[in-house]
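User: what does the whole thing look like in 3D?
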Amino acid sequence: MTAATSWTIPEVRAALDARKISARELVKEFYTRIDHYNPELNVYLALSPERAYAQADRIDAAIASGDALPPLAGVPLAVKDVISTRGIPTTCGSRILEGYKPVYDATAVTRLEHVGAIILGKTNCDEFAMGSSNENSAYGPVRNPVAIDHVPGGSSGGSAAAVAANLATVSLGTDTGGSIRQPGSFCGIPAMMPSYGRVSRYGLIAFASSLDRIGPFAHTVRDAAAVMSILAGRDPLDSTSAGAPVPEYTAALGHPLKGVRIGIPDDYFAEGLHPEVRKKIEAGIALLEKLGCRRVSIRMPNTDYAVAAYYIIATAEASSNLARYDGVRYGARVPGATLIEMYQKTRGRKFGAEVKRRIVLGTYVLSAGYYDAYYLKGQKIRSLIARDFREAFEKVDAIITPTSPVPPFRLGERTSNPLEMYLADIYTVTGSLAGVPGISVPSGKTSKGLPVGLQIYGPAFGEERVLQLAHAFEHAGGANL
Amino acid sequence: MKISREDVLKVAALANLELTDAEVETYRGQLDDILTYIDKLNEIDTSNIEPMTQVVAASADGWTLRDDVVVRSDVITEVLAGAPDPAPLYFRVPRVIEK
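Assistant: Here's the predicted 3D structure for the full assembly of 580 residues, as structure tokens:
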């Protein structure tokens, strides 16, 4: 029997059903492992043992009395620290929210806990989800469990590393421009960004509201699909959540891929793509063809403008959303002689460098005289990016790309040049702007053993197709290409 | 040069952000690079393109607003317990209005 901490959701369930382990014992195994590895990996910022053991005891009581168990009974879950958890510190990786404990739970958390998941704690991330390496956390970087001197990706680096290091069975991340998919790629696990509107954002502490999404990391695509089936659906507390019916996502897994049209955008295989990543993605595409998919060459001509449009829109929304951190109602305050001075000192001294950089940029592109040239222009380019996707999905069922143009890099290797870091978001920001779902699945490793991720985009609310392809790819040995 | 030191200071004031001299200089240079890069958007004529302000409108399928019903939340004590300078039932801030 494999170690309990590496079990998938069906394996957890089978062990509980067979009474090989109790939910309480399972939780204890995870906390023992976390105690051992967290000092080095820096994955968790806060643990919630009281809440975890209380939930475990409820599951164990249900098992003892022979009650039917809910779908995620006893499944240990890690939650990114930008997602609100009642009574558990939620810092967004920032000093400005040090000590903050939300008074309510995010809908995603409520839903998962309601079906039996056990929250182990909160995971480290780039401050306010702004970053691609997890080096922007005020509480120190997360290390990549696959290659310890490398970054785990970001911004949901802690959530990706938690699952990859067997410190949680599944985890929640958030994705604004790639923050689920890219760390999933860097840590070698499946990572899903749902369609915009598919999962409620209630309780997700906002970075860029028109882009932010919550989604899962898991050991397998099947586990990610099982979590998606719970997360998805209309929530009256989020007016942008969609009422579209939610299928049981695990049901479509295993359906044959014969005749599925996969679009390969030439524009995504241009300069800047690392040769080893290219090689693994081409091998991944060949594998999908072998599984019966039909390869179609497509054009997405506005791809080259996506990063610029994304950084206008995301920073503009961030500058507005982050105005609420003023030292009055929650978190940290730095005293000042006047109200304005108190605001300025609190924000100036408690926000980190990347957050301040984006607030300045976002305020600039929204300011008088620059709004049309930057913000409005960015929104118009966003229309064109969305049109690229709409037109592509008239010809194909899914689009295949690399998740990141580069493999995981070393800690500190890319911190000096923010623009260079932004440019590496090219393959993920496009889908963020368009609102479509995307998943990253492991597609082999580089010669140095660093994971490569293959990204599968589907049309809006086409999660089933995306998961079906990812599952088939995984089962055909995608990770070992 | 796209952005001056004065521009950075003006924007920082709009955003209620205290910046050190070193930060002003660093951000000025970095934002200059980023804004120069963003200029590539001017390669495309977008005069006939509608701005996309949100995703929802593009794929609406039964979005409805919920009824606006008042519900009790009873979190005042908890909320104030997390405030930097609570003075129940209020948040205290430096004096704004002179006597």
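In plain terms: Chain B has a mean pLDDT of 89. Chain B touches chain A through 56 residues (CB under 8 Å).
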